Request: fold
Amino acid sequence: MSMVGPSRPPALLSLLLVVAVSFFCSAIPIDDIRNRLLVKEKKMQLGGQLVLKKQEMKANEKLMALKNAEITEAMKTQKFPPSMHFFQAKSLIEKSQVFAILKKMPKGAALHVHDFSILSGDWLLKNVTYRPYCHFCITPKGAIQFKFAHPTPPTPKPTECSEWVLLEKYRKQLQNVTEFDDRLLKNFTLMTENPELVYANQDAIWSKFESIFFTISGLVHYAPVFKDYIFQCLQEFYQDNVFYLELRATFFPVYEVDGTVHSREWVVETYRSMAYEFAKDHPGFVGMKIIYTDHRTKNVSLIAQSVKEAMKLQAQFPKTMVGFDLVGREDTGHSLHDYQEALLIPTLQGTKLPYFFHAGETDWQGTSADTNLLDALVFNSTRIGHGFALGKHPAVMEYFRKNDIPIEVCPISNQVLKLVSDLRNHPAAALMASGHPMVISSDDPGIFGSKGLSYDFYEAFMGIGGMKADLKTLKQLAINSIKYSTLSQTDKMDFMQAWEERWNKFIDDLSKRP
Amino acid sequence: MSMVGPSRPPALLSLLLVVAVSFFCSAIPIDDIRNRLLVKEKKMQLGGQLVLKKQEMKANEKLMALKNAEITEAMKTQKFPPSMHFFQAKSLIEKSQVFAILKKMPKGAALHVHDFSILSGDWLLKNVTYRPYCHFCITPKGAIQFKFAHPTPPTPKPTECSEWVLLEKYRKQLQNVTEFDDRLLKNFTLMTENPELVYANQDAIWSKFESIFFTISGLVHYAPVFKDYIFQCLQEFYQDNVFYLELRATFFPVYEVDGTVHSREWVVETYRSMAYEFAKDHPGFVGMKIIYTDHRTKNVSLIAQSVKEAMKLQAQFPKTMVGFDLVGREDTGHSLHDYQEALLIPTLQGTKLPYFFHAGETDWQGTSADTNLLDALVFNSTRIGHGFALGKHPAVMEYFRKNDIPIEVCPISNQVLKLVSDLRNHPAAALMASGHPMVISSDDPGIFGSKGLSYDFYEAFMGIGGMKADLKTLKQLAINSIKYSTLSQTDKMDFMQAWEERWNKFIDDLSKRP
Reply:
């Protein structure tokens, strides 16, 4: 590429040239060079290699006109949702026309979501805590625990919890149930009006985050709720035009009202059959698969047991149980390196247990959480959960790119958990600009106050992608979610075909917008 | 690089292997692969190609022990200065032992600093506003303006300013001068206790930022102050172990108490002679050069005039006047593209006027401020001011890298002007990890409440570089500041040699720390 500037010798007499600057501007191919650069970068960005059909180009024009108008307006008001905390941006996002389009867009699959953080606290409050036999107790630290049981179970040790109180009975003697329910709801969500003040740092937000899982555990692992939860979860993603899920599941024991505890096989079988049943009444729904997860606070021998358990379940349910991952805060938990003995078991046994490791979900550089990215490579992870720190690892990044190993980007999660405040600065912006393999997911939408994938797609499209991301970017993200799933090649092709039909319908509607 | 994991076939009977997992962990070269990756990334990072001498290795150990201790402590307290707003982090930084070392380190040159935002408001208050003949007036919008004059000048038009009040006389009739001075000081600095609340968005902070330049203009362009300012500026950088500066100068008219206005030639000559005088009493001081700047709010024909003026001054003072740049907020000002006719003048005249463009000092993507990065390339910019958005431009980034065009990273500036809140997320982190050419500078230290380069070096070393950045990184940054200066090859070699002597002394002291 030739450049103008100091290194370029003069071509004509300078006097003449000064007089005719404006004429010669067009003679020096400034705009040519500039346009070539623009086109080059446009091709490098995520989706830049796609070629849009005529109808898609028309739809893209409509979409980009709306997007540009919304961004231009935000520049004036200095209120740009991706730059604001999601809790404060949510209502603005819901007014966005781009968001309305993203909701209608067939988005493919959700590849990074956790089993019991998908539905809203409101759903839990209204659909679960009002069921019969729901008891609660208060731990010495003030946390609420729930248990469905009949009859009322014996009082726990005082070091564990207070006596079990039947919620139905307790509510009856309250003067203001709404007030109680409002307070209860606060235990199910991170949402608050002033997140910056309430959660001073990552320790504070993670502490509350983990406490939510502790609190809702007794609710969601009650077998009837467990099943309804799965159904409702599939329903919400389906309504959000997401037709396939890979769920990271914790395998906490599922119990019945009489105290019976189900086996892990029962759990997988329930997931499998629920998805199967759901598919019957929901055309186009592709299914759900499970990634076995355990918590990174545990010691290596417990993780070794879980790896073996995952292998066993995978052998029993090869189409449903598809891999293994570790959950919990990387900054404070064990690293993949700490677990290396456990993680080598499948290889040493000659078994394939695909890994889907969370790695680099951190702002720190050079810590074990950061180095998890290297270990995710070493342990041949199939996809990378978050990979927030990937940009700081050029060698790992290059390897993932060459080997087509995608990162699962969860914008709202990263913002709410205080990794980044302004999503225009999300490190995935650089990766999206260079076409690095990625999918967009929502991690724990129920706890963050979002739903399905559309809110995260909005943040990715408007904030991370900026003005340059267009319909090609969106199309590529949807295609990626199918491509990088664990579905078989045949199933992927079927899914892609079904998705494409919906996509064409979506494009048709979009291009015909007034 | 060979990988373990699903794609690796079993080597021995699985049963035997399970029993002996811990034995075989060492047989599978997990740690080998991991270490090779670590070493590879270590070599890729900024300074990774440098080879430390024995003494330097010892010094590095001391430095890294302190650094690791400070970071480990910060992880516990969740109070890590680079993650906090600089105004709140400053006192913490000043307690840091790493910072104390960085102050002593010979840092080379400051390549991105603006003429009248280098000294603190406190210096202006105490050393300037108490001088005789200092008048002030208040504009209709409530801004303060200053003018040194004798006798008191006539009252300006009411649309411009109130009548001129002699500050000396005004202070005499005040009951509480300290209170007045405290309020006055607030007009000279962005510093405040609650920056997040006071400056709601980038509009707010830029508005205050520009108002400071407006207010101090009458003070610093008074010829005697102008000279003292330059001297004090050289003094502060010298004390901070910075021995050479390239100053972006605005060429606002410099005046005398009788109203005489000096020519631009006088200004350049004053810079030149001040630096010359300073060098006499300050061993090791290399000098100061000037980059002509104009404001990007102006129209193209005014900028064309400035380009010609810069060319003229460059011809007259080839060793002092070294290039041209545009200042002011990129998001709201004219783009380089808008100015293309003006910027082509030197080329069309067959003259070399090196450009040092601010480009990509923005969070927005796809706007004209963002696209300035492309135009900086097209117009053959010698260095890039900030280049904050560079990571989002893979093609431009690659070109700059290949052609060794550095970005001038100003961490505190980017944080205070609200481009990024947590400096661990500064986009230069990825660039530093991959060894992209860069220098560290302080932009407007006086207005941000910092001094010299050490505070910005602290943020870059601790925050942007993370735990991985070490003595090699620091050494490379110092070397870069010499390498990417506009000094002649001979002058660079002399500077490098003088710097190296100081560096060796610094290393000697550091390695002998108890």
User: Anything to note?
Assistant: Chain A has a mean pLDDT of 94. The first strand of chain A starts at residue 108 and ends at 114. Chain A touches chain B through 88 residues (CB under 8 Å).
